[in-house]
Design goal:
It is built from 13 helices and 13 strands. With 336 residues, it is an alpha/beta fold. The chain has two domains: 2-206, inorganic pyrophosphatase (n-terminal core) (Alpha-Beta Complex); 211-335, Diaminopimelate Epimerase, Chain A, domain 1 (Roll), CATH 3.10.310.30. Strand 2, helix 1 (27-42) and strand 3 (46-51) form a beta-alpha-beta unit. It binds guanosine-5'-monophosphate and manganese (II) ion. Residues 28, 92, 118, 137-138, 171 line the site of manganese (II) ion (MN).
């Protein structure tokens, strides 16, 4: 699981480090990045967190969020940081393409690449990789990396623990998913002992909707939801106009797909969003229905067995029809 362990000694002296994560960072991407960055800084390193895009407003309270550098906002600074970086952490992704416009910058950098991640099918680009597809969240792996590989539990403070808690909480659907096992709950107990105010984090992430976002949810449930009962599948398809009408921004569609999955009997849920440049697709499933295989084979994407994403440059209707035409191939797992 840990490959390239010999490189860890690099951290024995102060280093220039850049932390990267995937495009449109979610709670785990941002939580693992900010938790690790603060720990590394406390250990004497010079650390920057660089991302390719903005992130959801429901994460805009996290300790350290002001240090996040958005590449398109400060390209010259970012090029300099990568030119000088001795270590580039790659968190919560295992394929460099997931970093979008940062991909060529990371590929071109001379520093070592250290990947910490839990996605399937890792690409072979890292000098060090701490990888476990069974892990519930990258934040869980960052915690283990700090505690078990760097012997650094004593330097973990409440801010760092808050970031890691947020990553684990969001990637496990608030500890609902199968991956939220006893080991995960033991880490959560440690994080709470370190000073996490867990009730405040839930409040910040889940009870911070705007009135507009809630009305958008109502609109989607009423107008954009389609159930395909013969395949126990339900989907939302959101057009450009739907998004425009509610001035939807990054993160506003987060969690929507779970409403489709919450219908009794539904085993596969999809969300199709027309993001103008492409159609973004999110799939969720229960049991053995392979979202990752569907996304990888048909929608240029991937992810986990029960939660995956992909995209297409076709128009919305075509993508939705193509998705429906694929369902018969999975009739066995969808209906039995
Ligand atoms: P979401 O549906 O929340 O965007 O993503 C669900 C899961 O699928 C996440 O673990 C994410 O990493 C993965 N994922 C989302 N979009 C893509 C994509 O375009 N390509 C790949 N390989 N994985 C994706
Ligand atoms: Mn993750």
């Amino acid at each position: 699981m840990l490959e390239g362990k010999e490189n860890i000694t690099l951290l024995d002296s102060p280093r220039k480090i850049v932390i990267t994560t995937h495009h449109k960072p979610d709670g785990d991407a941002l939580g693992s990045s900010l938790g690790l960055s603060q720990w590394l800084r406390a250990a004497g390193h010079t650390v920057s967190v660089v991302v390719s895009s903005d992130f959801p407003t429901f994460l805009d309270w996290m300790p350290g969020r002001d240090e996040v550098i958005i590449f398109p906002d400060q390209p010259d600074l970012v090029y300099n940081l990568f030119a000088e970086a001795e270590i580039i952490f790659c968190l919560d992704y295992s394929a460099l393409s997931r970093t979008n416009i940062l991909e060529p910058v990371i590929r071109g950098a001379n520093g070592q690449k250290w990947m910490i991640d839990h996605h399937l099918d890792p690409e072979d680009f890292a000098d060090l990789s701490y990888w476990d597809s069974q892990a519930a969240a990258t934040a869980q792996l960052v915690y283990r990396f700090i505690v078990e590989e760097l012997d650094g539990k004593d330097k973990l403070n409440a801010d760092m623990a808050t970031c890691l808690y947020t990553g684990i909480m969001t990637d496990t659907g608030s500890f609902r998913f199968k991956a939220a096992n006893a080991a995960v709950h033991r880490i959560i107990a440690d994080l709470i002992e370190i000073g996490v105010r867990n009730w405040e984090i839930h409040q910040q992430v889940y009870n911070s909707s705007t009135e507009n976002r809630l009305k958008f949810l109502g609109y989607c449930l009423l107008n954009c939801l389609e159930v395909i009962p013969e395949y126990n599948t339900a989907i939302f398809a959101l057009s450009k106009d739907d998004l425009k009408q509610f001035a939807i921004t990054t993160g506003d569609t987060e969690g929507l797909v779970n409403y489709a999955l919450s219908i009794k009997g539904v085993r596969l849920a999809g969300l199709f969003v027309d993001r103008t440049e492409l159609i973004k697709l999110s799939l969720r499933s229960i049991g053995e229905i392979p979202c990752n295989e569907i996304c990888k084979t048909h929608f240029n994407g991937g992810g986990h067995l029960n939660a995956s994403g992909g995209s297409s440059t076709e128009d919305l209707l075509t993508v939705v029809e193509r998705f429906k035409s694929i369902l018969p191939q999975y009739a066995e797992v969808l209906t039995n």
